[in-house]
User: Fold this.
Amino acid sequence: MERFFLELEPPAAVMTSWPHVVVVGGGFAGLKVCHALARQPVRVTLIDKRNFNLFQPLLYQVASGLVSEADVASPLRQMVGDAPNIQILLGEVVAIDPEACQVVLNGQHLGYDQLILATGSGSTYFGREEWRSLAPPMKILEHADEIRRRLLMALEEAEQTRDPSQRAFLQTVVVVGAGPAGCELAGSLIELMQRAVQRDFKQLRRQDCRVVLVDPVDRVLPTMAPVLSEAAAAYLRAAGVDMRLGLKVEGIAPGRVCLSGAAGEIELEAATICWTAGVRASRLGRLLSDQTGCPIDRSGRLVVEPDFSVPGHPEIRAVGDLCSFAHTPNGSPLPGMAGPAVQAGEWVARDILARLRGQTIQPFRWLDLGSMAVIGPWYAVADLRGLHLTGLVGWVVWALAHLAFIPDTENRIALFSKWMWQIATRQRTALLITGRPDQHLGVDVGLFRAPRPTA
Assistant:
């Protein structure tokens, strides 16, 4: 069988002898690698299925109409493409040949000297993939657009519905998952619905707006300190969010969610259902594990060495949500957040450059900056290494931290101005109903092969 090789000519003759570093994935970790290697004596090829970097922590704001898609996404070519030693290729890596040091994309083979996998993670439904079409996750722009489209269409339908019970159904949202993403989405959606109904819809009642937050855990934000969970829960309840904790989702059908708990089975009816419960690493983790024998954890993440390399293959590194890095003081793997991903990406890039010079650097040490979640306008909770902040102070810290992590200056300015406008006027700037129904179903997020639409 004939094989086609992708031979990329270096833009300058001097680069011909430089090591070739292939970075797969333009998220937090991959982008940081590229920034650190820009204008260094290495050739860098960045491969991604999308031509933009997505700031996932703010997807819930796209779903609830606070900001638009362009505010949380930045073109990769504008961010690192101007570096003379970085080339960006649009495509999906479908195979890796560790022995030949090649990756396969777009039907062609691309060789590498160093391979950095930073393909991130997506949502999992714990073996119930049939729920995906009924309860969209929130991992890519299409997911956020679909959630916003479904909710706004439900409100528009409710405005024309005479039956009070049907209107109440259309004004009900169920959010599965009480972690940061679920709490942020629930708080933002209830505020959106109440303000929209009060100001923009003539036939709807504010008291019929209902957001139900569901999770088997016994408290929201279970990874944070209990005092912060209590503060977040109190705020959500006051805002009108109905919390159903200690309940497991047993089934999802159109307009219905079936739950089970100590008190028996419960059925919720809602026009809009959202899923923020499960996370699983991209399929490249299992693919590489099958080829190299590298162990993976139950979330599909590659269990890596202290230098983020795959056992037996020091030239292959995995960073971000794709890796399980347990070489920490307490032995706990790095959490799947932006901070650890950025720090890991920068360390790996510095380690590659040091080895080229015949040097070594200090072992990776994660600086834990804490965790935080915004629950509503001017209100957030933050756990900064034992310092607990709530309310306005927490929101200011949250806003500054997120603005600092956003890689594009233009997006920082746009987001800050829109946040200020929304807080001052309580108006949302991105409440357009666009796209086609179920547009997220045909998007392959790297966890499974999305079915091709039929004619």
The chain has two domains: 13-123+280-356, 129-277+370-442. The CA atoms of residues 50 and 90 lie 7 Å apart. The two ends are 32 Å apart (CA to CA).
